[in-house]
Design goal:
This protein is α/β, with parallel strands linked by helices. The chain folds into two domains: 244 residues, Rossmann fold (3-Layer(aba) Sandwich), CATH 3.40.50.740; 206 residues, Dimethylsulfoxide Reductase, domain 2. The chain is 34% helix and 15% strand. Helix 2 packs across helix 18 and helix 8 packs across helix 12. The protein starts with a strand and ends in a 13-residue tail after the last helix. It binds ligand MGD (2 copies), iron/sulfur cluster and molybdenum atom (MO). Iron/sulfur cluster (SF4) binds next to loops.
Length: 580
C-alpha cells in the first residue's frame, strides 16, 4: 500500500472521476503534503499516464477556494452568502429539519440527489444508507448514458473486456471523442492498427481530435445515426454479408427488423445523413466483410431525442454483422468489473417501495404543485445539478424555493452549493480511503488515504455516521467504518488487504452471448421528423471539454486557461471567448 523512498511516501490510489478509464495513481507525500500524483506505471490498462485534467490533482485538494468547514446560508438562496458553523451545529440543524420533514410530510418528502462526481463506494454510496433507512424517495434514471441503460435493461449486450479490441480489424468509433474523454481506450485501438493494420473510422459531426487521428472521418448530421446504421444493414443484406440465422439466436423480431432495414437504401440514407451514397455503400461493405469489426460507441449521441434509436440501431448492426462471435468484435459502450455499489449503499436497508423520481426531471418535480408529498428536503453530493441537469432554469427555480431545505456536500462552492441551506465540506480523493468500480474496464481499484483531511473536511462515510447519530438512527449499517462500507461492494473472493497492497484487481466476466430465454428486439429504430427549415436545422452539441470533467475543474486556473486558449474561438459579435 505504501512505500518510502528517502522521505517521500508513495501511496497507491486512483482517480475518482466519472471517466471510463479509472486510472490508478501513486501519490507522492512529503511532510504530510502530497507533492504530486503520477499514473501507476504497472497498471495494465491505464499504464502510468494521467490525463490533462487530472495530472496535478493535488492542486484541486490544496486549491485556495476549497470548502474546508461547514457553512450555513445567511443570504438569499443562490446569493452565495454563508457563515461558518461547526459540524455539530450543522449536523444538529440537518437532523432537526430532516426529522421535522419526515414528521410533517412523510419520509418520501426527503430525497438524496447524487451522481458520479466520485465513483468510490464510500463517496458515492455511504450517504445512500441514511436515506434507505429513512425511507426517502429514491433517485432513478441518469443524465449520462440513459439510452444505453434502457437497451441493456432489455437485454442488449453493450460491452466486453476493452483490452480485446486489439484483436479487431475494423473499429468504428461512433460518436465518441476518445482522445479527450477516455484516452486509455485509444491505446488498444491504435495497438490494433500497429499490430495488424486495423482501420479506424470516426463517425462524428465534429472533426474532433479523435477524428483527426483516425484513418477516416465521416461527418454525419447530428441525430441521424440510426438512419446510417439501418443503411449499413441494408448494404449487408443486399451484398449477402448479413448473418441472419445468427441474428435469430439473439433476437425475436429479425423479420420485422429486416423489413425496417429494407426501407433504407443508401440513396435515401445519404440524403438524410449528409454522407455521399458511395461512402454509405463502401462503409457497409467494409463493416460486413471485415472480421472482427467493433462499433465503439460514445455517450454523446445517446443524449438526444434519437438516443434510443441510435443505441438500438448500432446494437442491431453489430449483431447482423455477426461480429459478437469473434474476439474483439461486437459493440462496446461500457464495461464493468464485478463490483456491487448497491451492496455498499445497503440495498437491504430499504423497506417497502419508496417512490422513485427521475433525476432528469428534477426541475419540473421541484416546482410541481401536485407532487404528493412535495420534495421538502434534499441532500446533494457528487453532482452540480444547477448546471448539469436538463432545463437548468427550472432546476434553479426549484432550488430557490424558500420552503425547500437543501444540504450540499462539496469540495467547492458550486452553482448548486450557492442554493444550499447547509454546505458540508467533503474530503477529496487524497484525504480518504475508498474502493472504486469502473464503467469502461474490468478493474476494481483501491484508493488508499494519502493525507489527513484538510480543515474540517470529512468523508461521506463520516458525514453519514454523524447525521445518523444526530437523528437517533441506530441501525448497525449506519455505524460501519468507511473500509467496511467500501468492502461491501467487493465480491467475497477478493482479499481486501491484498487489494490495498496491489492497488487494483481485474475481475473479468465472459463476453455476452445470445440468451435463448430472453431474446431482444432489433426493430424500432425510428427517428423523429427531419428538420425542414434552417432554424430547425440548428442543433447544439455539448461535447465534453478536454480540460474539464463535466463542470469540475472550471474553477482551476490551469485547466481554465487551457480551455480558453486551446479550444475556444472568440465570438464574432462580442469578441468574448467561450469556455466550451
Ligand atoms: N475531458 C473530459 N473527459 C470526460 C468528460 C469530460 O467532461 N471531459 N466527461 C466524462 C463523461 S461523464 C462521459 S459520459 C464521457 C462522454 O464521452 P463521449 O461520449 O466520448 O463524449 P461527448 O463529447 O459527450 O460525445 C462524443 C462525441 O459525440 C459527438 N456527437 C454528438 N451528437 C452526435 C450525434 O448525433 N451523432 C454522432 N455520430 N456523434 C455525435 C460529439 O461531437 C462528440 O465528439 O466522457 C467522460 N470523460
Ligand atoms: N449541457 C450539458 N449537460 C450535461 C452534459 C453535457 O455534456 N452537456 N453531460 C451529462 C453527463 S454525461 C453527465 S455524467 C452529467 C454530469 O453532471 P455532474 O455529475 O453534475 O458532473 P460534475 O459537473 O462533474 O459534478 C460533479 C460534482 O461532484 C463534486 N465532487 C467530486 N468528487 C466529490 C466527492 O468526493 N464528494 C463530494 N461531495 N463532491 C464531489 C465535484 O466538485 C462536482 O461539483 O452531466 C450531464 N449534463
Ligand atoms: S479523468 Fe479519466 S483519464 Fe483522467 S486521470 Fe481520471 S480516470 Fe484517468
Ligand atoms: Mo456522463
Amino acid at each position: 500500500m505504501e512505500v518510502s523512498v528517502s522521505d517521500v511516501r508513495l501511496v497507491k490510489g486512483s482517480c475518482p472521476l466519472d471517466c471510463q478509464d479509472t486510472c490508478s495513481w501513486v501519490a507522492h507525500v512529503e511532510d504530510s503534503r502530497v507533492v504530486k500524483v503520477v499514473g501507476a506505471k504497472e497498471h495494465p490498462f491505464t499504464r502510468g499516464i494521467l490525463c490533462a485534467k487530472v495530472k496535478d490533482y493535488e492542486q484541486r485538494t490544496y486549491a485556495p477556494d476549497r470548502l474546508l468547514h461547514p457553512l450555513a446560508r445567511v443570504g438569499d438562496k443562490g446569493s452565495g452568502r454563508f457563515e461558518r458553523i461547526t459540524w455539530e451545529n450543522a449536523v444538529g440543524r440537518i437532523a432537526d429539519r430532516f426529522g421535522g420533514i419526515v414528521d410533517d410530510f412523510g419520509a418520501e418528502a426527503l430525497m438524496p440527489l447524487f451522481f458520479l462526481g466520485s465513483l468510490g463506494a464510500v463517496q458515492h454510496d455511504a450517504l445512500r444508507r441514511l436515506f434507505h433507512v429513512l425511507g426517502a424517495s429514491r433517485p432513478a434514471g441518469s443524465v449520462c448514458g440513459q439510452a444505453g441503460n434502457a437497451l441493456a435493461a432489455e437485454g442488449h449486450p453493450r460491452g466486453f473486456d476493452p483490452e480485446e479490441i486489439v484483436h479487431a480489424q475494423l473499429i468504428l468509433v461512433w460518436g465518441a471523442n476518445l482522445l479527450t474523454t477516455a484516452h486509455h481506450h485509444w491505446h488498444f485501438i491504435t495497438q490494433a492498427r500497429k499490430l495488424h493494420g486495423a482501420r479506424i473510422i470516426v463517425i462524428d459531426p465534429i472533426r474532433t481530435r479523435t477524428a483527426n487521428a483516425a484513418d477516416e472521418h465521416i461527418a454525419i448530421k447530428p441525430g441521424t445515426d440510426a438512419v446510417l446504421a439501418l443503411g449499413l444493414a441494408h448494404v449487408l443484406v443486399t451484398e449477402g454479408l448479413a448473418h441472419v440465422e445468427h441474428s435469430r439466436e439473439w433476437a425475436s423480431d429479425v423479420d420485422e427488423y429486416l423489413a425496417e432495414v429494407a426501407e433504407w437504401p443508401p440513396s435515401r440514407v445519404a440524403d438524410i445523413c449528409g454522407i455521399p451514397e458511395e461512402d454509405v455503400v463502401r462503409l457497409g461493405r467494409e463493416f460486413g466483410a471485415t472480421s472482427p469489426a467493433v462499433i465503439r460507441s460514445g455517450i454523446g449521441p445517446q443524449q438526444s431525442v434519437n438516443g434510443e434509436a441510435y443505441m438500438r440501431s448500432i446494437s442491431a448492426l453489430a449483431i447482423l454483422g455477426g461480429h459478437w462471435s469473434n474476439r474483439g468484435g461486437g459493440l462496446f459502450v461500457e464495461a464493468y468489473p464485478d463490483f456491487d455499489i448497491n451492496a455498499a449503499a445497503g440495498r437491504h436497508l430499504v423497506t417497502g417501495e419508496p417512490r422513485e423520481l427521475d433525476i432528469a426531471r428534477m426541475g419540473p418535480l421541484l416546482v410541481d404543485p401536485e407532487l404528493d408529498p412535495p420534495i421538502k428536503g434534499l441532500m446533494v453530493w457528487n453532482m452540480n445539478p444547477a448546471v448539469s441537469l436538463p432545463d437548468t432554469t427550472t432546476v434553479r427555480r426549484g432550488f430557490a424555493r424558500t420552503d425547500l431545505f437543501t444540504v450540499v456536500i462539496e469540495h467547492f462552492m458550486t452553482d448548486t452549493a450557492r442554493y444550499a441551506d447547509i454546505v458540508l465540506p467533503s474530503t477529496t480523493q487524497l484525504e480518504h480511503f475508498d474502493i472504486l468500480g469502473a464503467w469502461g474496464h474490468q478493474y476494481v481499484s483501491v484508493n488508499n488515504q494519502a493525507i489527513a483531511p484538510l480543515g474540517e473536511a470529512k468523508s461521506h462515510g463520516e458525514a453519514m455516521r454523524l447525521i445518523a447519530a444526530a437523528m437517533d438512527l441506530d441501525h448497525p449499517a449506519l455505524r460501519e467504518s468507511d473500509e467496511q462500507i467500501a468492502a461491501a461492494a467487493l465480491p467475497t473472493r477478493v482479499d481486501l488487504d491484498q487489494l490495498k497492497l496491489d492497488g487494483w484487481l481485474k475481475t473479468s466476466s465472459p463476453k455476452p452471448t445470445p440468451d435463448p430465454k430472453n431474446k431482444i428486439r432489433l426493430a424500432g429504430s425510428s427517428i423523429g421528423p427531419q428538420p425542414e427549415t434552417p432554424a430547425d436545422m440548428l442543433r447544439l452539441l455539448t461535447p465534453k471539454g478536454h480540460f474539464f470533467m463535466n463542470t469540475s475543474f472550471a474553477n482551476m486556473p490551469r485547466q481554465r486557461k487551457a480551455m480558453k486558449t486551446r479550444r475556444s474561438q472568440p465570438c464574432r459579435r462580442t469578441g468574448h471567448n467561450s469556455l466550451q
